[in-house]
Write a structure and sequence with these properties.
The complex is a heterotrimer. Chain B is mainly alpha-helical. Chain B has 14 helices and no strands. By secondary structure, chain C is an all-alpha fold. The chains are: A alpha/beta, B mainly alpha, C mainly alpha. The interface between B and C is large, with 50 and 50 residues.
């Protein structure tokens, strides 16, 4: 866990409520709902990685969290504290949630939105959704304000914007092509530039071969289903892959023909790439991806071991 | 004479469509090629990615589709013979669901070798088949009872698969992965897993061909011929399970091929004089028909792929189901 | 007086109440019987509050849904003269599901054209869903009946063909549902799949209220047509000789059954086997009195769903196993047992 601590220290965060906020505050979430929070929330339930991430970045421990495929967000390590496991993000155990006596529940609109009525009965409910960098900024401010730390949240965003600008300057728009793939058994989905991971990487000056999806009505439609052969035809310089459900990577014979694999530039990356909206995740992704895309220019950041990218290995 | 003519026509159409579909399938992909180029690449590997795609990606996928289709078709036919029921199908008798369960369990709880996956599939399929047959035996394998027994066994194993997935916290999507079959990204690895099982199943059915012919007759007749019909029916059922389970382990559950293929063959080769097609030839035709249908379904799935996500398993259910409803009119005339 | 004292009048409601109480007591956090009683009072304790807020509405939803499926099953079995009729087997649930998933996709498309940011409106209004499900169920049933229509003998349906076409059509409709679900965005895939497996997760009074009128309408329809239903149990000739054609009554009863099944599907998604098993179960217990069979079925349906849901909540805490999965696991062997029993009797 030293990795995460070092990383957090690098994010120039001071712990402790240095910026006292005046409560009540009113924030707007992704439902466009105005939620008024009367007192500084002490017991927060975090449904999904984004909420856990923001809480950790702001130095708070959630009382309840959800898992994704049975796992806590590993990149946050033990800093999440002894939070109660509420089950799967798509159907958190409401009864258990109620017994935690939370005063704020932070969830994901797409999964928890349909049950907002039930959640609102337990506590104030804020629902956020994934999107690009601007959405992430907005959500961090909203949640930060709700937690009484709007200035700190603002600072997180400013620091991150500065970091991105700095990185972009250093790369000087070199021509590197890449693909970020979410792999699930036989299926491969390439993230398009509408999604934040790709937006971050493309923002560094690299070219996403999956492109931008003009027709996507919601960000999560901005994926391209790839078959192994498409991968061969695209042949990116750098390949980043997140394998969900612990599935092994398929199609080794074909993948070994890829430029990226031959040159050792194909990587298996951590969970944070699939949901990089939180302040910790996005900075991890930016820093690590920069070091993977432009190895001469950037050092690999110190990340917790199981969040670190490794060179892609094949079963045989 | 009539028989031979209609059957010859059917054979020609079948062969031509199988080859044609395979050729079209071979050309489809991100980098399109002309038929001649495709054949040239098949003949000789020039080291390019296109050549690799055709030889190492498209070809095994096609072979997988054909083999799975042929296996399922033969499996269905064997079930039909064993149960003397024209509605036999690995899906409808719970075999596919049982095999899915076996494969899902072993993949969830272990990191198994390839042969273990297939074995788990066979074990699950065998368990399901035994349950179905045991349940329906009480009624002397009457059509409706076999159907219902198969259905309840299938629903049970589907529910059990869901249970494993939910308890093990796989996401709901991975559940669907186990409920729909398809051929996306199937390569030589899968084909190498599949062909020994499929081949031994096919060989076993061909070796049993004369006996299968007898089994189709009355129990009284076959016993009169000195046949230990109980034992042979059991053997045929086992072969049928192996064929279906191998397919399921590789491609997931794909429904209705086992019913539709034998039916089409019987219908197209039906003679006016009433002479039955020789059983060996019947088996070959059924396997080829199953392969052709499945390949066509995969082709449809690829073509639809750009705007609808419909794996071959779904295409087969939709088209096969329609065929089933149309074809079963005749076979269920006495089905009440 | 005698009827009132009959064991069936006491035992079954008693069993249902007991099941509900056990379901109220059972949960991820322990509760005592005192908590359960306390929760029903006006001023609940903390445990009592949780029971009243989470378990009670869910139990009520389970009871209503169970009653719907059970009544739908018993009506269909009698009217179609088919002991195997069941909303889930006959493709009715699949039809309702397809309609609802279609409507979900359409509502997403409509919402997108709007371009508004208030994403919460893109979920279908709850009150609409029963109607949409009903339309889907009617279409699927008409198809199944058309396919099973025996043209040689006029307006009669072959039970075997009905089962066969129901199963096949159900599989096809489910395949279409999958295409739609897989082509929706990933987030909706998860939600739709959860719904399709039949779940009472987060179901409460707000979900049950929209279908209460349907329950009442269904029960009223059953009262009005109850006599006809009883007559239909006889063979067609006897019914005819009694001077009733019963054509309209049959149609009316089928609509009542569809209404009940579709509205239940709209709340919980398809929960298999309840409509199929429960009437058989009732026949096993009260073979001679049809009116009692109906009541036993009503109670048994509610008990089955509530008990399955309770089990589903407790098997893999904190994960909840959908109730449809549990009824599938219990229902399939029970059904197999019934088939065997029937074949032995006949």
């Amino acid at each position: 866990m030293i990795g995460l601590r070092t990383f957090l220290a690098g994010m120039l965060l001071t712990t402790g409520g240095a910026y006292a906020e005046e409560f009540p505050v009113t924030v707007t979430d992704a439902r466009a709902a105005q939620v008024t929070i009367d007192q500084e929330p002490q017991r927060v339930v975090a449904l999904g990685a984004f909420a856990s991430d923001v809480l950790t970045a702001l130095g708070k421990e959630p009382v309840g969290i959800t898992t994704y495929e049975g796992e806590r967000p590993v990149y946050l390590g033990k800093d999440l504290g002894p939070a109660t496991d509420l089950g799967d993000l798509t159907a958190p155990n409401l009864e258990l949630m109620a017994t935690l006596n939370p005063d704020l529940v932070v969830g994901m609109l797409r999964y928890n939105g349909p049950y907002e009525e039930e959640i609102t009965e337990i506590a104030d409910f804020l629902a956020f959704d994934i999107g690009g960098i601007d959405v992430s900024d907005k959500n961090i401010i909203s949640l930060g304000t709700a937690l009484g730390q709007s200035e700190k949240a603002l600072k997180l965003n400013e620091t991150f914007a500065g970091l991105r600008a700095n990185f972009e300057e250093q790369t000087g728009k070199q021509d590197v092509s890449y693909l970020f793939i979410w792999n699930f058994y036989d299926s491969m989905y390439a993230y398009q530039d509408n999604l934040m991971s790709a937006e971050l990487l493309s923002g560094l000056g690299a070219t996403n071969l999956a492109g931008f999806n003009e027709d996507a009505e919601t960000p999560d439609q901005a994926v391209k289903v790839l078959e192994v052969e498409d991968l061969l035809a695209l042949d990116p310089d750098v390949l980043l892959m997140f394998s969900s459900h612990g599935s092994t990577i398929k199609g080794s014979a074909a993948l070994k023909r890829l430029k990226a694999v031959k040159e050792g530039r194909a990587f298996s990356v951590g969970f944070q790439y699939s949901q990089p909206d939180g302040p910790i995740a996005r900075e991890m992704v930016l820093r690590e991806a920069a070091s993977l895309l432009f190895p001469g220019l950037f050092q690999a950041p110190a990340l917790p071991e199981n969040a670190r990218a490794t060179v892609l290995k094949f079963a045989d | 004479m009539q028989t031979e003519k209609s059957s010859l026509l059917f054979e020609c159409v079948l062969g031509a469509s199988l080859l044609g579909l395979a050729l079209v399938h071979l050309q489809l992909g991100p980098s399109e090629t002309t038929p001649l180029e495709t054949l040239a690449y098949l003949w000789q590997d020039n080291g390019s990615n296109v050549s690799f795609a055709i030889r190492e990606l498209r070809l095994p996928r096609i072979l997988c589709a054909i083999t799975v289709g042929a296996s399922l078709a033969l499996s269905g036919f064997l079930i039909q013979v064993v149960t003397r029921n024209p509605l036999g199908d690995p899906g409808l008798t719970g075999v596919s669901a049982g095999a899915t369960f076996g494969v899902a369990v072993i993949i969830t709880y272990a990191d198994p070798a390839a042969w273990l996956i297939i074995s788990a599939g066979i074990a699950g399929g065998g368990l399901a088949a035994s349950l179905t047959l045991l349940l329906a035996r009480a009624s002397g394998l009457q059509h409706i009872h076999l159907l219902l027994a198969g259905l309840s066994v299938a629903i049970f194993f589907m529910a059990a698969t869901s249970m494993v997935m939910v308890v093990e916290r796989a996401s709901m999507q991975s559940l669907y992965f186990w409920m729909i079959g398809g051929f996306a990204n199937k390569e030589w690895v899968e084909f190498n897993l599949l062909w020994p099982v499929a081949l031994s199943g096919c060989l076993a059915s061909f070796l049993m061909a004369p006996i299968l012919g007898l089994l189709q007759l009355d129990d009284a007749v076959s016993t009169g011929l000195g046949l230990q019909s109980g034992l042979w029916r059991l053997t045929a059922a086992a072969v049928s399970v192996v064929l279906a389970a191998g397919s399921v382990a590789v491609a997931g559950p794909i429904g209705f091929i086992g019913f539709v293929a034998p039916h089409i063959v019987r219908k197209c080769c039906r003679s006016s004089s009433g002479n039955p097609v020789p059983i060996g030839k019947l088996l070959i035709l059924i396997a080829l028909t199953g392969g052709t249908l499945t390949l066509a379904a995969d082709l449809v799935s690829i073509t639809l792929g750009s705007f609808l996500h419909a794996p071959a398993g779904i295409v087969v259910v939709l088209v096969g189901g329609a065929c089933f409803l149309a074809l079963s009119r005749d076979s269920v005339r006495d089905f009440s | 007086m005698i009827r009132l004292l009959s064991p069936y009048v006491v035992i079954w409601p008693g069993l249902l109440v007991l099941t509900c109480l056990v379901s109220l007591k059972t949960g991820v956090t322990g509760a005592s019987w005192a908590d359960v009683l306390n929760s029903l009072s006006g001023d609940p304790s903390e445990q009592g509050h949780i029971i009243a807020t989470y378990r009670l509405p869910r139990v009520i939803a389970g009871v209503i849904v169970g009653i719907h499926f059970a009544l739908a099953g018993i009506i269909m079995q009698v009217v179609l003269r088919n002991p195997l009729a069941d909303p889930t087997i006959f493709g009715i649930s699949s039809g309702a599901s397809l309609a609802v998933v279609c409507a979900m996709s359409v509502s997403i498309a409509l919402f997108q054209a709007d371009g508004a940011l208030s994403v919460s409106t893109d979920y279908l209004p709850l009150i609409w869903i029963p109607y949409i499900a009903f339309a889907g169920a009617v279409c699927a049933t008409v198809l199944v009946l058309l396919l099973a229509l025996d043209r040689r003998t006029g307006l009669s349906f072959s039970p075997g063909k009905m089962v066969l076409s129901g199963i096949i059509l159900g599989a096809m409709l489910n395949a279409l549902v999958m295409v739609l679900v897989l082509s929706l965005s990933e987030a909706r895939t998860e939600l739709a799949i959860l719904w399709l497996s039949g779940t009472l997760y987060a179901r409460g009074l707000s979900h049950v209220w929209p279908i209460i009128p349907w329950t009442l309408a269904g029960l009223a329809g059953l009262l009005v047509l109850g006599g006809a239903l009883n007559l239909l149990r006889c063979d067609p000739q006897t019914a005819q000789s009694l001077g009733v054609s019963l054509k309209w009554e049959r149609l009316g009863l089928i609509l009542v059954a569809l209404l009940l099944a579709a509205s239940a599907v709209s709340v919980s998604g398809p929960i298999g086997f309840v409509g199929l098993l429960v009437p058989h179960f009732a026949r096993l217990f009260v073979p001679h009195s049809f009116s009692r069979q109906i009541w036993v079925a009503v109670y048994a349906g509610a008990i089955l769903v509530v008990a399955s849901d309770t089990a589903g909540r407790m098997i893999a805490v904190p994960i909840e196993v959908p109730v449809g999965v549990i009824t599938g696991l219990i229902g399939a062997p029970a059904f197999a047992f019934l088939i065997r029993r029937q074949t032995k009797v006949s």
